[in-house]
Design goal:
Elements: H1 11-23, H2 41-64, H3 71-93, E1 112-115, E2 118-121, H4 127-130, E3 227-233, E4 235-237, E5 240-242, E6 250-256, E7 265-270, H5 273-276, E8 281-286, E9 293-299, H6 309-312, H7 331-339, H8 346-356, H9 369-374, H10 378-385, H11 391-400
The protein binds a DNA duplex (14 and 14 nucleotides) through strand 6 and strand 7.
DNA sequence: ATGATTTGACCACT
DNA sequence: AGTGGTCAAATCAT
């Protein structure tokens, strides 16, 4: 049995931990600008390069793990990874506070400590760092861009040209289940579908005089509606990139070219809107300056996953906050609340977790994020506020239970519930 | 048959 | 008037 330092774990774990270390990037969709202010121009490039390298190596290691049993070899690989991250830390901390050996230094993203159950996140990093996020999931065949970085805005939408391979996600690390019963891991986004036609082939549809009926409820935008923007890396899948999978299933309902943006913006609504009237929506846009990064803006909350109590009753490690996720009628709100108001990014964390694992399991609505961070969390949150949030333990538990039954949307949306068209 | 995507048009908002 | 968000027919995939 090889024991790796928490921060040396391969991608999914390290990414997860990073995310749960408060690096989750989440903010109002209006904000823009750099996330990382590295001071000198070249500094962040180097940091990125280092982190990328570390992530890449970790990805490779993970890929090799199943077939490798040589402790010495694994240790060497771990050191290489540690070195890469250490170098990044060194650059970040400057000459004075450099960390020469990441293996003995603090976790790359700080704020972690080994507890009874392992690595438990306790505090989130200083505000500035909170912006430092951007996930990427280097896979064996494509280890590009590792992660977080703060790009500022949201990630761009799926480019249909590349998109959508029809089979299972090539890139399902630690994902026990393919997604959900509808086979849409990344939601409709990856469910496959027609490849975008060239403009010239403008379908045979002879544009009938738009039969748009008289005012049928094109709802006026709710200006007060909270939105959450998240920057996520594309899912590397060999030579294509899929939009980030946040664990929910989405159905695309529109795409639009946005002024000033190189890539079009795609609009998605929850696939279960018709089942449960779920109003969750999201806009996905690929960044102009980084095609591997998408900016996802979530609007509204998922009301379709409020009955995922089985998931939320995952065993909690001893010592972890015991506040139940199950008592609330609204799992999403409850979960976020439990994590506490101090963790502004928790919904994102969970969303990320969600994306790492069998989606749909985690009934945490990202759309609830803003609401949760503002709204009183209630007694549960209050109780959890001063407690070590079991985020990571939960994550581990979830990873470990990724193959458990119930990961399928079937368990949540039984066929008889479906009233969709 | 069913469900998802594409895409032009419509409409709200600024 | 310009832009962004949504609708829905046509089309495509399973």
């Amino acid at each position: 049995m090889h024991v790796l330092a928490p921060h040396l774990l391969a991608p999914p774990f390290s990414a997860l931990r990073a995310a749960n270390s408060g690096l989750g990037y989440y903010r109002d969709h209006q904000s823009r600008g750099r996330i990382i202010d590295g001071g000198e121009p070249g500094v962040m490039d180097e940091v990125l390069s280092r982190i990328s390298e570390g992530f890449r190596l970790a990805g490779e290691l993970m890929a090799e793990l199943p077939a490798t049993n040589d402790p010495a070899y694994l240790a060497a690989r771990c050191h290489a990874i540690a070195h890469a991250y250490g170098a990044a830390a060194h650059v970040l901390e400057g000459p004075a506070g450099g960390v020469d050996d990441a293996a003995t230094g603090p976790p790359p993203f700080g704020g972690g400590e080994a507890g009874a159950g392992g690595y438990v996140h306790q505090q989130r990093p200083p505000a500035p760092q909170a912006d430092l996020l951007r996930m990427s999931f280097p896979g064996p065949e494509d280890a590009r861009s590792p992660l977080f970085l703060g790009a500022a805005g949201p990630p761009p939408p799926p480019q249909h040209h590349h998109h959508l391979g029809r089979g299972p996600h090539p890139h399902q690390w630690f994902r026990a289940a393919p997604s959900d019963a509808y086979g849409a891991g990344a939601g409709a986004t990856s469910s496959g579908g027609p490849v975008r036609r060239l403009a010239s082939s403008s379908s045979s549809r002879s544009s009938p005089p738009s039969p748009v009926l008289p005012w049928q409820g094109r709802r006026r935008r709710e200006s007060g509606e909270k939105k959450v923007m998240v920057t996520m890396a594309a899912q590397p899948t060999g030579n294509t990139e899929l939009p980030p999978d946040d664990g929910y299933t989405w159905r695309k309902y529109g795409q639009k070219d946005i002024l000033g943006s190189k890539y079009p913006r795609s609009y998605y609504r929850c696939t279960h809107k018709n089942y449960y009237g779920c109003e969750a929506k999201k806009k996905v846009q690929r960044r102009d300056d980084d095609r591997f990064t998408y900016e996802v803006t979530y609007c509204g909350s998922h009301s379709c996953l409020t009955s995922v109590t089985p998931l939320l009753t995952l065993p909690m490690p001893a010592g972890a906050a015991t506040t139940s996720f199950t008592s609330s009628p609204n799992a999403a709100t409850s979960a976020a609340a439990v994590l506490g108001p101090d963790l502004v990014v928790e919904p994102l964390h969970l969303g990320i977790l969600n994306s790492w694992m069998s989606p749909t399991n985690l009934g945490v609505g990202l759309g609830e994020a803003s609401t949760c961070s503002n709204a009183p969390a209630g007694a549960a949150a209050a109780a959890a506020r001063d407690t070590d949030y079991p985020v990571l333990d939960l994550a581990d538990v979830m990873f470990n239970s990724g193959s458990r039954g119930g990961s399928s949307m079937d368990g949540i949306f039984s066929s008889h519930d479906r009233r969709d068209s």
